[in-house]
Amino acid sequence: MLSDDDYIEAIRGNTPEMAFVKLEAKFRQKMNDDLKDNDESGFFDACALEYINHCLATAKALDLDFLDPWTLPSGKRQQLWDHYRDLLVAIDNFKVQIQVANARGVLRYSVGLSHDDKEKLRRYVDEIKTIVDNAPLDGWKKDRLYNLINAFLAEVDRDRAPWDRFADLVIGLAHLGGQAATELRPVRELIDSIARLLGRTKEIEDSTPKLPKSTPRRIPAPSKDRPKPDVDDDIPF
Q: Which of 16, 42, 125, 188 could form a disulfide with 62 if both were Cys (CB 3.0 to 4.6 A apart)?
């Protein structure tokens, strides 16, 4: 069983679809780890049933319906193997769709920056830090702003800069009031300059053609009437 922290880590800040992708990877890794030093067929059955059960329960808890046609297998061991194999195909199909969609989302809510753009942003950030240094703010407020500034700067150094860290900085500044807000007015002008740079760069980037939007489709469970292969009850490894 996974720990509570494993579930919280996978779910926090993610869509239900992406949370499933992360949790399924943990379930599969646990199953593979358990099977490394034990190749007995009966032990595989127990691990496969646990994996299937956890995937079905997770999809249900997250209100995802793509596994609704599936149930826990029962009966002969060959049926368990067929069920497990086909479920893996369905889950992998779903995961690839979600991961591609997630990658497209990252592109949508981020922007690629040239070397010159990064240098401009670093200069803006340095000016912001200087103003914050000299502002009559309580120590904890300065520390909070420094953390937001540094988090944004770290994203600027990446290949693509996501919007969320810049939004965090804007919100952090918006919470300041009174004399502090007056003293930090030049910072707001620098924030506007950053926003214009990011917006202009994103506008240019978005002018390039994009792939058509797609949504995950439900993969049907295998037909119960399909012919079974002429094999014995041993798992074919």
A: 16
